[in-house]
Structures are given as C-alpha cells and as structure tokens.
Amino acid sequence: MKQNAIPDVTNDVAGRIAQESLRRRGFDYADEVRRLLDAALEVMQRNGSSARARVADIVAAAGLSNEAFYRHFPSKDALVAAVIEDGTERLKGYLEHQMSKQRTAAGQVRRWAEGILSQAAPKLAEPVLALLAGSGGGDTGLHSGRYPASAPLATLLHEPLAELGSSNPELDALLLAHAVLGRLTDHLRQRTQPTRAELDHLVELCLRAADSSTKPSNSNGRRRR
Fold first, then answer.
1. 33 and 100: one domain?
2. Could you tell me which of 4, 216, 210, 13 has the C-alpha nearest to residue 110?
3. 98 near 115, Cβ under 8 Å?
4. 13-40: per-residue pLDDT in tens?
5. Cβ pair 119, 184 in contact under 8 A
6. Tens digit of pLDDT for each residue in 204-225?
7. Neighbours of 65 (CB within 10 A)
8. Is-contact 161 210, C-beta < 8 A?
9. pLDDT tens, position by position, 41-73
10. Can you give the three-state secondary structure of the chain, one letter per residue?
11. In the chain, how many domains are there?
C-alpha cells in the first residue's frame, strides 16, 4: 500500500452532493405544487360556475411557468382532481380533530355530521362550491349530484358505527356519507344553511341506521322489533 495515499472518496462525495441536490429540488417542487393547488382554487372561486379555469390563468396566479405546470400535471383536469383531493384531505383532518373531542360513538357521529354540514356556512361555501363546480365536467361534482369525498370521509365512521352495533359499518358509513354530502350539496346549490332541527334529525337518522342494521329481517323483509 502506498504511503500517504488519498482514500478514494469520489463516489461518496458524488452521492452526497447528488442526494442533497435531489432533496433541495424536492422542496422546490413541493412548493411549486402547493402554489399551483392554491392558485387553481383561487381561480375556480373567482370564476364560479360561469367559466372553467384555464391553465394560463392558474399559472399566472401561481407566478409560475407552463413548464412548471406540466412538470407536475399532465392536464388541467389532473390538477383539478388534485385540488379536490387536497380539499378532501383538509376536511377529513378537520373532522378527525372534531371527532377526537368526543368519547362516545354517538358523539363522534354527531361531530362528523356537524362538521360536514358546517361547510355550507357563508365563509366556507365558496371554496366548496368552487371544488364541486370545478369537477362538474367529469363524472363527479356539483352537476352530477355526486360529491367526490364520500368514500374518504366515510372511513371516519367505520369505528363509531361498529361500536354502535352496525353489522356492516363500511357499507352503512358509505351510504350515510352519500346522504349527508348530498344534503350539503343541496344547501350549497340553494345558498342555504342547515337548521339545528335538521341536523338533529340527520344525526338521529345516522344512529338509527347503525342500530337497525343489527336487527334481522323477517320473511317479508321488514326489520324485527
């Protein structure tokens, strides 16, 4: 072995620098995506239901280039889908937080329903309407009468409904999510807000659905009492 030889660390140095570059680029790209998501929602809110958001408008609002847009999204529809998914995740996180404040399954179901219908409040309605209108050109959204968040939000009811005695909490939760989100869509369309009496009735309906699913039906298909 040669004396005073310098160890070959070229590969280690190259790998470290490459990883650091990728890490920095990852942060930059995450910032770009967030700016595009926020800008898309802003443009969708500004346009309302009168016009579809254009890529040029979204890019301008984000302060980015077309190259940046297509680096992350193959089309405008892909971006709209991501905006809807992002909004759903935010709502899901809010509902989880509200439900965690309740110790009983019934209380968690109430907080879930309250949290969803609270999106009809004036300060929250416009962003939700923008999401629904923005997805209306496809198979989901305001114009088709379907809310794209049903399945993700339904998962929050699995445990409470099972604790309440539901024999099929996954199906019950999905049906309830369709019903409650459908009612939210009604309020958003009509620019109205749910009353306390309506909310109480809706929560009671959710609780009865869990209870009735545990009772076997007789030969006529009716639930036994």
1. no
2. 210
3. yes
4. 666 656 766 666 666 788 899 999 999 9
5. yes
6. 988 888 776 555 544 454 444 4
7. 11
8. yes
9. 888 888 776 667 789 999 999 999 999 999 999
10. CCCCCCCCCHHHHHHHHHHHHHHHHHHHHHHHHHHHHHHHHHHHHHHCCCCCCCHHHHHHHHCCCHHHHHHHCCCHHHHHHHHHHHHHHHHHHHHHHHHCCCCCHHHHHHHHHHHHHHHHCHHHHHHHHHHHHHCCCCCCECCCCECCCHHHHHHHHHHHHHHCCCCCHHHHHHHHHHHHHHHHHHHHHHCCCCCHHHHHHHHHHHHHHHHHCCCCECCCCCECC
11. 2
As given in the structure block, the two tokens for residue 146 are: 């379907």
Rounded CA gap, 189 and 144, in Å? 12
This prediction has a pTM of 0.74
Asked if residues 170 and 81 have their Cβ atoms less than 8 Å apart, the reply is no
Pair (27, 109) in one structural domain: no
Q: Is the same domain home to 130 and 169?
A: yes
Residue that is written with structure tokens 């990728």 in the block: 22
Which residue range is the domain that position 189 belongs to?
82-215
Q: What is the rounded CA–CA span in Å between residue 53 and residue 76?
A: 8
